[in-house]
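Hypothesis: this fold can be encoded by more than one sequence.
Test: take the structure tokens below, design a sequence, compare later.
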């Protein structure tokens, strides 16, 4: 995976820890990073976590559009809970012995699995994840011996430690405007292909990209507005897209996954760029 070589040194950035209430004093995410860093030079990676339980969940409840049958999952969460138990028991040292692609894959899977658990913990299931108080910032989950929030996993570890903006095509926060939930776990050996495929699927959907040629308007997901710095950091020397200098890295990323006709339009710059409204209603299948 080409962009992984730009990994951000964890401890050097302690002073600018994103969204961390604990700062450099040793919050849960920092504890994991500190404990796992000692295994980074291990000669051989320790065994990966078995993806079978979470694969079984995804294959059972995720449809072809990436929507979720939460009712079925709520009735039978045994496989999901088995996987979450393994995430809780995973040691930072074992995690730290893995190649970076395996680490990223594990963290994406953890985020998505814990989001599913957060949804089905509600009785009745809420019409939107935003109806669950503190779901991102305060609700804590067991991961590698620590109690982490969803924001902690995303912002304090994934976004902070790995310069890989394609994670935003894979992290699914249970909203209709999120990228589609993948019907399989992410794995280190397949991660590059999977993230490319997720990016392509997301940007082929009307929640990722909408092009109105008649009105010379391009609409892109608000994810690109919220986390635009991640694309600029990954591609700081992106060639300028005329009229959209600040969004050049984003637009060049999007163009990579679109047909030639769309690429020509996107890179030509002769359009009005907007961010699409975000639909926070639950990404629930209608089985």
């Amino acid at each position: 995976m080409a962009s992984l070589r730009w990994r951000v040194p964890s401890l050097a950035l302690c002073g600018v820890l994103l969204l961390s209430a604990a700062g450099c004093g040793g919050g849960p995410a920092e504890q994991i990073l500190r404990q796992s860093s000692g295994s980074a030079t291990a000669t051989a990676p320790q065994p990966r976590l078995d993806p079978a339980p979470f694969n079984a969940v995804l294959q059972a409840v995720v449809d072809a559009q990436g929507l979720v049958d939460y009712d079925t999952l709520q009735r039978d969460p045994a496989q999901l809970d088995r996987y979450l138990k393994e995430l809780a028991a995973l040691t930072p040292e074992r995690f730290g012995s893995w190649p970076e692609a395996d680490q990223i894959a594990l963290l994406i899977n953890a985020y998505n699995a814990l989001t599913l658990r957060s949804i089905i913990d509600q009785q009745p299931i809420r019409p939107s994840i935003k109806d669950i108080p503190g779901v991102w910032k305060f609700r804590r989950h067991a991961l590698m011996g620590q109690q982490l929030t969803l924001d902690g996993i995303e912002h304090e570890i994934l976004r902070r430690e790995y310069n890989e903006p394609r994670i935003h095509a894979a992290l699914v926060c249970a909203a209709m405007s999120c990228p589609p939930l993948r019907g399989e776990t992410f794995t280190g050996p397949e991660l590059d292909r999977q993230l490319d495929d997720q990016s392509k699927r997301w940007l082929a959907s009307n929640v990722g990209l909408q092009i109105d040629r008649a009105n010379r308007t391009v609409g892109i997901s608000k994810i690109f507005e919220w986390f635009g710095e991640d694309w600029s950091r990954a591609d700081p020397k992106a060639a300028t897209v005329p009229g959209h200098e600040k969004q050049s890295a984003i637009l060049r990323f999007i163009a990579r996954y679109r047909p030639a006709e769309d690429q020509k339009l996107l890179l030509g710059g002769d359009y009005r760029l907007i961010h699409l409204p975000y639909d926070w209603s639950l990404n629930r299948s209608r089985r």
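Confidence is low (pLDDT under 50) at residues 1-25. Residues 241 and 267 are 6 Å apart (CA to CA).
Hypothesis status: open.
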